[in-house]
Every structure is written in structure tokens, then in C-alpha cells.
Structure to design on (265 residues):
């Protein structure tokens, strides 16, 4: 089955992001295709490489990165949500005159059209949130 | 991308306490470019999103109620409101804004696409949707 995943909550604050990760990983291991993981609302905070959890805790951001490296996953942060919450890549830094970037590798910032496209292209859109 | 899907945007939260309502609306506006069959559903505190006369001037929040009135221009065909959610909050459809819709090609007009539905209809609408965006 071809799946699209939407993550609506921030890491550590809410279980949604853990559930989304475990679901995505399990689906990929079972041989399903994950067309895209789209991060919206506070979900975009899953994509900052500056996250530094305590050493005995899971690193939610790195976990996504490793999954993306293994399965060539498309991890997309919504640009409007990202701008509000200070998630910045090279393009956004240049466009908005920011002095730094914080996006994690394998993530990219793009528009809401990527969510709509994922919903159209996939057999199921699975939403994780409150 | 020629396939037309039935999109349902499920709005469950009050308009200003969290950002979900506004960011849901942003998806609807952007999604209009994809020419899908789009309905909105308002349930639980989500029904407050359509209550007319809201004034945000003293809360430093942008009032986005006028944006709902334009949704007919963004390809939204139906805005369903859960009747039980209205009743539980002491509201009727008279408390809600009206949203007009016009097909530019056929000139078909609908005065108001906001419609209260009961639980059975709600279930039916959910079941027949291809995609449910839940906010």
C-alpha cells in the first residue's frame, strides 16, 4: 500500500510524533511504500538538528534522519508552519535574512501543496495528532 | 494527477485557543489549486469557528472569520456542521455565518453552503470521503 503520513505535534511534548515514527518504520519494514511524511503545526519541530535530548532519552530528530537515510524517505516541513516556528534552511535564511539555519539533514521545507499532493497520490493519509 | 478525490477537512477545535483552525484554513486555501471535491465539517468546539460577529480586536489575534465567507471561491462545495455539537453549546444555525457559492461556468448559485447535519449523515459523509484531514 502507498501511504502518506502527517505529523501535527511537536517532539517530546506529545506522543503523536513517536507514534508516527513507529508506524512509518513498521510500514516500511513490512514493504509498504511511504510516499511522504509531512510535518505540520508544531510537528515541524521534528526537523531541527539542534535538538539535544538527555543522553538516556530517544533522539526523535535523529531517528527520523536515520529512517530517511535507510529508506530514502521524503521528510517535508510545511514552509508556513516552519517560518512561524523558526525552522530555517539555506533558502529560507537567504529569503528572510536570517543569520542561521537549523534544519536537520534529509528534511526539506516546502509548501502545503506537498501535503495535498501526498493525499492525492497515496492510498491512505494517516494523521498523527491530538 | 487527473483523479478527483473527495477531501474532507474535519475541524474540531475553537478558532483562537490553538492554531489548528487557522492552519487548517491555510490548507484549504492552498488545496484549492488542486481541484479536488472539497467539503468542510465542523464538530465539537470546531462549530465556534463559524459563529458570526466574533471580535478579536482586544486579543491581538487576526480575525479570520471573513476568510470562511470566501471559501466558495476556493472550490469548497459544502460546509457541514454537526447538529449535536451546536445544541450542546446552545447554538443554532442562526448563530452561524452564511457562505455563498457560485459556479462560474454554469452560473449555478447557492445562497448558503453551511448546513447542519445529524450524526447518521455525519458518519455517511466521513465514510464516503477519500481523504480526511483532521484538525
Amino acid at each position: 500500500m502507498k501511504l502518506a503520513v502527517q505529523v501535527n505535534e511537536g517532539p517530546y511534548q506529545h506522543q503523536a510524533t513517536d507514534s508516527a515514527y513507529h508506524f512509518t518504520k513498521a510500514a516500511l519494514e513490512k514493504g509498504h511504500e511511504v510516499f511522504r511524511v509531512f510535518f505540520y503545526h508544531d510537528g515541524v519541530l521534528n526537523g531541527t538538528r539542534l535538538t539535544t535530548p538527555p543522553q538516556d532519552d530517544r533522539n526523535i530528530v535523529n531517528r527520523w534522519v536515520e529512517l530517511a537515510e535507510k529508506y530514502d524517505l521524503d521528510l517535508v516541513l510545511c514552509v508556513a508552519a516552519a517560518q512561524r516556528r523558526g525552522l530555517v534552511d539555506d533558502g529560507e535564511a537567504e529569503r528572510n535574512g536570517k543569520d542561521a539555519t537549523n534544519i536537520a539533514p534529509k528534511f526539506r521545507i516546502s509548501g502545503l501543496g506537498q501535503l495535498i499532493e501526498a493525499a492525492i497520490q497515496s492510498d491512505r493519509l494517516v494523521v498523527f495528532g491530538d | 494527477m487527473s483523479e478527483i478525490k473527495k477531501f474532507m477537512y474535519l475541524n474540531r477545535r475553537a478558532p483562537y485557543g490553538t492554531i489548528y483552525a487557522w492552519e487548517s484554513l491555510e490548507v484549504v486555501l492552498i488545496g484549492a489549486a488542486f481541484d479536488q471535491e472539497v467539503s468542510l465539517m465542523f464538530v465539537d468546539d470546531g462549530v465556534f469557528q463559524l459563529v458570526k460577529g466574533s471580535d478579536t480586536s482586544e486579543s491581538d489575534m487576526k480575525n479570520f472569520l471573513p476568510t470562511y465567507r470566501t471559501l466558495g471561491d476556493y472550490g469548497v462545495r459544502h460546509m457541514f456542521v454537526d447538529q449535536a455539537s451546536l445544541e450542546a453549546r446552545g447554538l443554532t444555525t442562526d448563530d452561524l455565518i452564511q457562505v455563498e457559492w457560485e459556479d462560474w461556468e454554469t452560473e449555478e448559485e447557492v445562497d448558503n453552503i453551511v448546513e447542519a447535519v445529524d450524526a447518521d449523515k455525519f458518519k455517511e459523509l466521513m465514510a464516503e470521503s477519500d481523504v480526511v484531514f483532521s484538525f
About this structure: The longest strand of chain A covers residues 33-39. The two ends of chain A are 25 Å apart (CA to CA). The mean pLDDT of chain A is 97.
